[in-house]
Each structure stands twice: as structure tokens, then as C-alpha cells.
Write a structure and sequence with these properties.
single chain, mainly alpha, about 50% helix
Length: about 140
Amino acid sequence: MPSAKSSGKGKVSGKVKSEDTKSTSRSTRAGLQFPVSRIHRMLRKSNVSKRIGSGAPVYLAAVLEYLSAEILELAGNAARDNKKRRINPRHLQLAIRNDEELSKLLGDVIISEGGVVPYINPAVRFFSFTSCSTILNGLV
């Protein structure tokens, strides 16, 4: 058994770190890709509250990761439908506006270079060009 190391003030610390153990990040422990420690630091610096619990940044990182994965999946599907391999702002716009919940969440968001979702009013949709030409011929 390795001996306990001194902390420098005469007392012996209770924890002993062996040489083969590596520190794991909080993101790895939570099984997330988003940085839990960075989110915790940003929460502390943003003056949201005086005290931030240890579970709050983990939960927030999980929510952000889920939302970004959902948007990227839908945008990837939109890119594939347009026979493209890269996701551009147009694909993000189509993905968000065609999904009911994401559209409600990001309703006030304007995506630069996103364009608009194609929509044709049903009253105009069934108005054919042949009927238009007959109406115009009647006017002339």
C-alpha cells in the first residue's frame, strides 16, 4: 500500500493517488460531448445566481447536446433530400420550421441566409394556367 503524501502543512491527506489512475472529465463521467466544466464556469461568471449546484451544468449540457443533435439530424435529412452532403443555413431553416416543437422554441429566431419555407395558399394552388388563359381571353 502506498504511503499517504503530506499536503505541506504537517497534516497527512486522506486520499492517495496512484500513478496509474487518470483524472476523468465531468463530461466523460456524464457520457456527454458538451463541456460540463466550461458550462459551469460560464454559469458562475454570468451572475445567474450566487451558488450553482454541481448537477446544474451537467443537466444544461445534456439539454444543449440533445437539442443540437436533434437539429443536426433534421438538417442532415433536409440536406440529403436536396442531394447535398453539407449542411447549409437553408437546411437548418427547413429543419427548424418543418418541426412543430423546434419551430415553437425558435419562433423568434432569424437564420441568416436561411430563406423562407415554401408555402402556396390552397386557394391559389388549384388555380391552373388553363383557367387563367380562358379568363384572360374573355377579358380581351
